[in-house]
């Protein structure tokens, strides 16, 4: 601590400083300042890019939140209508089973007079029971291919 001040070994003392050495130092200082300015520009450009990315991220985050809300809302709606849909499907299935029973019964009763026979009132008139049976059969066949919307 109390030793006399000695310059570090790689530094020249002021007494030995020549004009050329001073010019060299000024040149190095100018180069260092130019380098610093380049880094400053790079930093500013990078900062602007980072800010753009943050803004973009915030926008995407907002969109994701909106989409999540919509998906939750849709899921709640589907859950709400599923019981109605299941009840309607069961009603349709019960009705379809009853109609199939009716078609089978009509096939028999309309063939045999002892069981009622055709309800033609005169020759060349069609039987209303058979016509109804045929319509129901066609509707059942159609329903199998393309189920209609549920009714309340
Ligand atoms: Zn008939």
Automatic annotation (TrEMBL):
Keywords: Coiled coil. Residues 22-105 form a coiled coil. It comes from the Bacteria. The keyword Coiled coil applies. This is Uncharacterized protein. It comes from Streptomyces purpureus.
């Amino acid at each position: 601590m109390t030793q006399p001040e000695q310059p570090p070994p790689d530094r020249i003392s002021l007494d030995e400083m020549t004009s050329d050495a001073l010019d060299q130092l000024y040149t190095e200082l100018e180069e260092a300042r130019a380098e610093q300015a380049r880094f400053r520009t790079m930093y500013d450009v990078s900062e602007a890019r980072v800010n753009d990315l943050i803004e973009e991220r915030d926008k995407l985050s907002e969109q994701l939140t909106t989409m999540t809300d919509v998906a939750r809302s849709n899921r709640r709606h589907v859950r709400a209508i599923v019981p109605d849909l299941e009840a309607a499907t069961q009603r349709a299935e019960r009705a379809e089973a009853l109609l199939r029973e009716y078609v089978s019964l009509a096939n028999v009763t309309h063939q045999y007079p002892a069981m009622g026979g055709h309800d033609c009132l005169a020759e060349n008139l069609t039987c209303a029971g058979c016509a109804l049976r045929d319509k129901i059969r066609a509707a059942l066949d159609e329903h199998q291919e393309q189920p209609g919307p549920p009714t309340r």
